[in-house]
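User: I'm writing a short methods note and want a consistent example. For Peptidyl-prolyl cis-trans isomerase B (Cyclophilin B), I'll paste the sequence; you return only the structure tokens, no commentary, since I'll be parsing the reply automatically.
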Amino acid sequence: MASSRDRQRKLARAKLDRQLARRAAVAKRRRQIQAGVGAAVVLALIVAGSAWALGAFDSDPEKPTAEDVCLWTPQDGAANTNLKDVGTPATKDLPTEGTRSMTITTNQGGPITVGLDLADAPCGAASLAHLASRSFYNGTNCHEITTEGALRCGDPSGTGIGGPTYSFYNENVPSAPEPSPSASPAPGQPPAYPKGTVAMIGNPPGTNGSQFLIFFKDFNPAKPDYSVVGRVTGGLDVVEKIGALPTVDNGSGAKVKPKTDVVIQSLTVGDPNAAPAASSAPASSPSAG
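Assistant:
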């Protein structure tokens, strides 16, 4: 009988060991599954976080901001009542290549056309175009024939201190001529402002607004101050005719005011023209014979 009970106890023990082994195996598999799921969740969170940091979930990605081409300095119209508020030009996305055609029609003859230089004077060209779009110049007088050989225009007040309620800095001032033993520039050098040059003029120098000069003579100062904005492309004879008009005292002792009013009837600025493509080979000469 004792052997029978011992055998039964052994069988029960073995059965319990098998049950415990099966339970341990099930618990191990559950832990493995849980660990795998946890690792997958952590990996998914890492991937999602990296994608979020890189902007993958942005509904409207931020576009790069265009850089300012020109800056316009506000001027106080209350302190200077000769200034006229017509807003300010744009600061971004301004043309910086090629040219724009400016046409000035006066009461003194045919139109004067100017090629505005967008590459070297984008801000001067932008200001002139903005003011022209506001009819700023229409009906104004060119109030001076300067001793430097230029027609001065663009001040509705005719005082020399008028303009818009903004200004901008010089951007295309010619280099100073090489020194010579005398006070004058060395002979043989091209003038800083050849006849037909159009340049901005500010008061004080460097605070440009609406006023500009059209040179009807070569001018070569020891220290250039005016920012070149373009060149006359047509009607230079009209400018020379105006430059020959007699002048009278402007009220401050300077004999620079045209005796006959020079009125800008209209000033317009056209759309930008692309810069001409460089030729890969020089133009051929006509064949002989």
